[in-house]
Structure formats: structure tokens, C-alpha cells
Model the fold of this input.
Amino acid sequence: MEPDARRGHVLLTSQDSEIGDRPTRRKILQYGASAFFGANLALSPPRSPQAAASVRGLHTLTVGQAKVTIISDGKFNFPQAFVLPDRKPAEIDALFSKVGSEKPSFDAEVNVVLIRMADRLVLVDTGGGTEFLPTLGRFPDLLQSAGIASEDITDVVFTHAHPDHFWGVIDPFDGMSRFPNARLHMTAGERDYWLKPGLERSVPPDLAGVTLGTQRRLSTLKDQVEELPLGQEIVPGLLSVATPGHTPGHISLHLTSQGENLFLGGDVLIHPIVSFAEPAWRWGADVDWPDAARSRARILDMLASDQILLLGYHLPWPGLGRVERHDSAYRWIPV
Ligand SMILES: [Zn+2]
Done:
């Protein structure tokens, strides 16, 4: 990866480290605790068993004085009919072939981010844990491999409370936070949406199980969750940016240090082709799709205009790239 001061960010170190598979408590738990996965027909493991078994890594970069570590929690696959319910298969095939892809693919990485800045160690989202999908839940072992104890994390910021971002906060051994010394930050809009009684009856039936699962976990932690203000710094240099739609209280984060920038998009831009080439298309995982499309349009315009480096939670590993205007929309350029 080349240093590029012109774009306002310099990647001083960049390294992928491969971590071998070991018997861990994650594995002990993984196969006995997939009740929600069984009930949840909307998401499925990656189609390729090799991808599910592949060794994942750690990726580091610096943004000014902040050290950023991207940690894979695993990957999964979005069923095409779930995420693009309004589009005919031929229309989707045409979009993918236009950008040179042989056939549509909806694999999603899960890129958890750790930011070390000043005396803070800030985690952005926590992966899916061991109770959501059997292909997720690697992040805690990789964190340990990186020499970081979960007790050292000072802050956990949730972009939103979907299971692949939120359930990893729970330690399945005691049902409490895996990060005992960390302040947990979530917007009031997000917390209140998930804690609304009867929410599971207002979502598609396939999502009722995961909705109840999030409600249960959030209820356990709610006294520890601090209200995250919008448009303000959570720690110096890390600004919350309202990007509602994927969920009602969804946020992104803008990290700035010494004039260098990194935008952590959460799920505002999910798919490396669809989210950029057809940002107005309804994405089935978005709770409020007109709001989600507005947030996508605003963030794409900002990232392309200001050439800010984007880190996407579900974009191809390690999720780093920039946004270019292309035809009447945009395209994703991995870096
Ligand atoms: Zn997600």
C-alpha cells in the first residue's frame, strides 16, 4: 500500500498477519449455540466452505497519531433475494457483468476496528459473537493474538445494534459484557428502537428471532450503555456522524488526527458494487430504505469530493478504499 499524502491520509504501516486455527473457547461454544442461526433464514454462511474455513487476519494502519487495527470476525453471505428484493435477477446480472464480475456475489466480510489514540483504546463494533452465525465470532481470539486484553478496551462504540455488530459484546460464559472496563456508547435512537416492546412483530418473520436476540442482550446491558451524542467527538478526534436508515439510530465515525482522515462507515455502504453503482436501490437489510438511500448519497458525495479513505465493515477485506465518481454514480477503489 503506497503512502499517499495527496489524499489527506498517510498509511505508514500496513501488514496482514495470518493467525492459525487453535482450539479455543470460541470453538467450544460455537456449535452448541446456534439457535438463532437456525431460526434466521435471511442470512446464511458463505457459499464456499473454503471461504468459511480460511484463515483470517489483522491489518494495521496509522491515521496521524492514531493506530488503527482491523480485526476480522469472519464472513457470511447475504442471500440475493433478501438484499435486493425489488430487482429482477437479470437486472442484477447485468449490473455485475457491467463491472466485469462473472456472476453476482453477496459475500460480506465482518471488519471490526480497534483505534488506539492518546490514552484510549476504542473498539468500533464487536462482531457477531458465537451465537449468531457459525462463520463469525473469530474477533476475540484475534484480539488476544494481537496482544490486547479485552480488559484494556476503554470504549466500545456501536454503529448500530444488528447482531453482526452488537452480539459480540456479550461474553457467552456469563452473559455480561466481554469488556468489563469499557464505556459502551450507542445513540439513543438506536437503543430506543431496539427496546421498543413488540418490535419483533413489526419486522419480517425471518428477522423476529434476531430482533428478540438483540432486545435480550441490550436489555442486559442497558444500564451500562451511554447515550452517544450525534455530531460530537466521542474521544478527541473521533466524531460521530448521523447516517440513519440502515437502522434508525445508525451512525458512522470520522477519525481525524494531524490532518489525516479515515471514515468508518458502519453499514452505510455495504456492498462493493451495488452500494456504489446503484446507491438508490433498496437494500433489503435496511430498516428504513428511503433514509438509508439518502444517507448513502450524502456520504458517497462527501467521500468522493474530499477523497477521504473509507473503512467499510462489510467491504472486501480489510475494507479500506476510496470512492470515485463513475458514470452517473460511483465506484469503490480498494487500496
Ligand atoms: Zn452489518
